[in-house]
From TrEMBL:
This is ECHD2 protein. The keyword Lyase applies. Belongs to the enoyl-CoA hydratase/isomerase family. GO terms for cellular component: mitochondrion. GO terms for molecular function: enoyl-CoA hydratase activity. It comes from the Eukaryota.
C-alpha cells in the first residue's frame, strides 16, 4: 500500500460482525515463554508503527469491540469512526499487563494525559458515544441492521478526502505527524519543508488554474 500511488485512503474494517479487533489471543500467549512474548509484542509494535507511517490517510471503522491491541490498531490510524454501541478499551491491566503496541504513547497524544491514565489504570471499557466525547473517535453513529454503520460512515469520510490533491494530503499528514513531536518553531520548519515539496507539483498548478477558471480541479497526484 505504501508504494501504490493509486491508493488515496486506507480504511481498516473487520470481517467479523460485532468485533473490530479483540486484541491478542491470551490462550496463545499463555503458551509462550517470556522471550517469545517479548518478541511477539515487539513485532506487534512494529506493525502498528508501519500502519502509522503509511503516507496516505487511514481510517479505523470500529463497528464492535476494539480491545487491547485492537484499540492500539485503531489508535495507529489517523481517523477513527465508531458505532455508538462499539466497546473500546486498553484492558491490559485487568490481565496483569500494560499496553505494549503503542497504547501508552498514542492514547495520551489523542485524548490527553489525564484521561489516558484513567483508562489505562482502570482497564475500563467505553462505548462509541463516550469515546466521541473524549475525542478518541472523530465520529460516532447509531449501529444499523447490517452491523457496518461505522464502516459506511468511514467510507463517506474517505470520499470527502478522495477529491483533494493526493500529494498535498500526504504532505499535510507528514507535517502534522512530525510537527506534533517537536516544539512549535521546529514544527514550523517541518511545515515549510513539506510546503516546499508541494510547490512544484502539477496538482498545485491545477488547483490555481481551476480556481481562476471557476471549475472543479482535476488532481492526478503529480
Amino acid at each position: 500500500l505504501r508504494f501504490d500511488e493509486n491508493v488515496r485512503v486506507v480504511v481498516f474494517k473487520s470481517e467479523v460482525k460485532g468485533v473490530f479487533c479483540a486484541g491478542a489471543d491470551l490462550k496463545e500467549r499463555a503458551q509462550m515463554d517470556d522471550a517469545e512474548v517479548g518478541h511477539f509484542v515487539k513485532r506487534l509494535r512494529n506493525l502498528m508503527d508501519e500502519i502509522a507511517a503509511l503516507p496516505v490517510p487511514t481510517i479505523a471503522a470500529i463497528d464492535g469491540y476494539a480491545l487491547g491491541g485492537g484499540l492500539e490498531l485503531a489508535l495507529a490510524c489517523d481517523l477513527r469512526v465508531a458505532a455508538s454501541s462499539a466497546k473500546m478499551g486498553l484492558i491490559e491491566t485487568t490481565r496483569g499487563l500494560l499496553p505494549g503496541a503503542g497504547g501508552t504513547q498514542r492514547l495520551p497524544r489523542c485524548i490527553g494525559i489525564g484521561l489516558a491514565k484513567e483508562l489505562i489504570f482502570t482497564g475500563r471499557q467505553i462505548d462509541g458515544q463516550q469515546a466521541f466525547s473524549m475525542g478518541l473517535v472523530n465520529h460516532t453513529v447509531p449501529q444499523n441492521d447490517k452491523g457496518d454503520a461505522a464502516y459506511q460512515r468511514a467510507l463517506t469520510l474517505a470520499k470527502e478526502i478522495l477529491p483533494q490533491a493526493p500529494f498535498a494530503v500526504k504532505m499535510g499528514k507528514l507535517a502534522i505527524n512530525r510537527g506534533m513531536e517537536v516544539d512549535i518553531a521546529s514544527g514550523m520548519a517541518i511545515e515549510g519543508m513539506c510546503y516546499a515539496q508541494n510547490i512544484p507539483t502539477r496538482d498545485r498548478q491545477e488547483g490555481m488554474a481551476a480556481f481562476k477558471e471557476k471549475r472543479p480541479p482535476q488532481f492526478i497526484g503529480k
